[in-house]
Amino acid sequence: MSAAVDYHRAEATSSVRPRVTVVQDGSRLHYGLPLGLKLAGILDTVHMDWFVRPGSLEAAAAPMMARLGGANGRRLAARRCAGLDGSRVVAAGWSTLLARLREDRNALPEQNFVRRSQAMARQVMGDGWRGANSLVGFVRNIDPSLCQAARRDGLSVVLDQMIAPIAVQRREEARQAELWPEWQTPQDTGSAIMQDVEQRSWDAAGHITCASAYVRDGLLAVGLRSGQISVIPYPVDASAYAFCDRRKRTGPVVVGFVGAVSLRKGAPAFFEIARAFDPAKVRFVMVGPIAAEPALVERRRGEVAVIGAVPRGEVRTWLEQFDLFLFPSACEGSAGAVMEAMATGLPIVTTPNSGTPVRDGEDGFVIPCEDLAGMSRAIDRLVQDQDLRLRMGISARRRVEDLTVRRYGEAWRDLLERVMAAGDGMRPLLE
After folding, report:
1. Domains, the chain, ranges and CATH?
2. Residues 227-240, buried b or exposed e (16+ Cβ, 10 A)?
3. Average per-residue pLDDT for the chain
4. By the 8 A CB rule, do 233 and 29 touch?
């Protein structure tokens, strides 16, 4: 079996059942990793900075936080997951809020990220392993020193690479900046900090997972060994999204986007493609926070409706208003917005760099991120052919219906069993 594709259960190679401690930052993947491990029967403990349990003080404060705390308050109030009720969740709670208030607002964001991960490491070490034999977390969010401590104590350490390595990310962003020079941002001085974290995390891990071939290829390009990288596509709860039959609609065909309006996400490409279409026939809409100079976005938007950030609960409503989904990103891990769009039955036009499970010619079209003419042709084809939009939308929905949390957990269980049987892959990841 190839280590790069882990869908089907391998023969049991380990007599030891994995018992996993997870370090979970925020609500990443909508808690898909600990939920999947729980369904697979191998979750031991989840460590978080903040979590709203039923009947807790956090739950009592959540309505006020959501109402008065702005975007951060709404996010914290939503940090709950019914599927983890009854699981062993260790959260720092109110000390997290106090620590955030004390953070140096003049520091680089990456410096604060490092301090947060170090605080989480102290929380985990203070709690102890409690019989766990595996540590799981996310590269760039888990503290490398915690991974090193786990390895010294005999635990298997498997980390997920959420996005292409920083070296690849910076290369892709530089390429986009050459194409769109006015979108170029000041030199990213914080990336060196995260690159160091990334490197030390690889050194401390026994195995790396990622959600797409794009990220795997990036890991190989920076020197990781193929035998210690596994592709496990991220899960999506397709049942939370109703399939929309859009055939009875009238008026312009709506081409939508959800995500940060930024250079890396392909915002200038989205604006440029929109210029090729008659706004009376095709309408382009971007939903998400503006992560570029607002004046620049205003100058370039043309006929594009830039909605800005919306509460997460409203994203589903916007997806239902779209007729197809354009996501011209230059660098991702595996864009969750695309999978959610697929769940509603939207055909997708995207890039290989988006790391999504879209199958070219079946669920939509996958086109190199610099081929704007190719994307325009794909969009025009979908605009002109309603039946094609429906067929590809149905295919997209079926595709993500296979990417369940249960299947994700089973793939992780199988991987951990193999890693443990191999002695945690004690050879270094870097060649």
Report:
1. 20-235+404-421 (3.40.50.2000), 238-401 (3.40.50.2000)
2. ebbbbbbbbbbbee
3. 91
4. no
Inter-axis angle of helices 312-321 and 336-343, to 10 degrees? 50
pLDDT bin (cut points 50, 70, 90) of residue 74 is confident
Contact 331, 303 (CB under 8 A): no
How far is the C-alpha of 14 from the C-alpha of 35, rounded, in Å? 23
What pLDDT, in 10s, does the model give residues 121-133? 999 999 999 999 9
Structure tokens at 330: 């230059």
Give the pLDDT confidence of 5-34 residue by residue, as tens digits.
443 444 444 468 999 999 999 899 999 999
Q: From CA 376, how far away is CA 118, in angstroms rounded?
A: 46
pTM for the whole structure: 0.91
* Cα–Cα dist 353/333, whole Å: 8
- Sign, CA dihedral 203-206-211-212, equals positive
The pLDDT assigned to 15 comes to: 65
Amino acid at 360: D
β-strand partners of 43: 20
- What token pair was written down for 152? 């010294």
Closest CA to 144 of 108, 118, 110: 118
Structure tokens at 158: 């498997």
Cα–chain-centroid distance for residue 262? 16
Q: What is the pLDDT of residue 14?
A: 46
